[in-house]
Write a structure and sequence with these properties.
Layout: E1 3-5, E2 12-14, H1 30-74, H2 79-114, H3 118-156
Antiparallel strand pairs: 1-2
Helix pairs in contact: 1-2, 1-3, 2-3
Bound molecules: zinc ion (ZN).
Zinc ion (ZN) binds at residues 6, 8-9, 11, 20, 22-23, 25.
Length: 157
C-alpha cells in the first residue's frame, strides 16, 4: 500500500482506495493505468496496421485499374481473363472498403475507451479485428484472382 497525491485536491490518498476520501475523485490503480496504456498501444498499432492495409488495398486497386485499362486499350483482354480481372478488382475494392470501415471502428474503439465504456470498446475492437482480417482475406483472394487472370491472359499471347 502506498500513498499518492490526489490529482484533483492534492491530498494524500491510498492507492488501495477506490476514490479520494477528500474530494471523491476515483483513484486509478497502477494496474488500471497499465491496462489503459496497453489498450492505447494496441489501438495505435492497430491503426498503423490498418493504414498499411488501406495503402495496400487502395494502391492495388488503382494499379490494377491502370493495368486493366492498358490491356483493354491494346485489345489483348480475353473474355476469360477479363472476367477474372473484374472479379479480382471487385475483391480489391471490397478489401479497401473493409479497411476503411475498420478504420472507422478503430476510431470508435478509441472514443469508447476514452469515455471508459470498456465493454463497448472491447466489442468495437473485436469488430475492427474481424473487419481487418476479412480485408486481408479479400486482398489475398483478389491477388489470387489477379494471378489467375494473368495466367489466362498470357495463355493467349
Ligand atoms: Zn482528492
Amino acid at each position: 500500500m502506498a500513498l499518492i497525491k490526489c490529482l484533483d485536491c492534492g491530498k494524500d490518498v491510498s492507492t488501495e482506495a477506490a476514490a479520494c476520501p477528500h474530494c471523491g475523485r476515483p483513484v486509478k490503480t497502477p494496474g488500471q493505468i497499465d491496462r489503459v496504456k496497453k489498450y492505447d498501444t494496441v489501438v495505435s498499432s492497430g491503426q498503423s496496421a490498418l493504414r498499411a492495409l488501406l495503402t495496400l488495398d487502395g494502391g492495388a486497386t488503382i494499379a490494377f485499374l491502370t493495368f486493366i485499362g492498358h490491356l483493354w486499350d491494346k485489345g489483348t483482354l480475353s473474355s476469360e481473363s477479363s472476367h477474372l480481372f473484374v472479379a479480382a478488382l471487385q475483391m480489391f475494392i471490397y478489401g479497401t472498403l473493409l479497411a476503411v470501415l475498420a478504420y472507422g471502428t478503430i476510431f470508435l474503439t478509441n472514443c469508447l475507451s476514452s469515455v471508459e465504456w470498456h465493454r463497448s470498446a472491447n466489442a468495437m475492437f473485436s469488430v475492427t479485428v474481424l473487419l481487418g482480417f476479412t480485408s486481408v482475406g479479400c486482398f489475398l483472394a483478389a491477388s489470387w484472382r489477379a494471378v489467375e487472370g494473368l495466367q489466362a491472359a498470357t495463355k493467349l499471347i
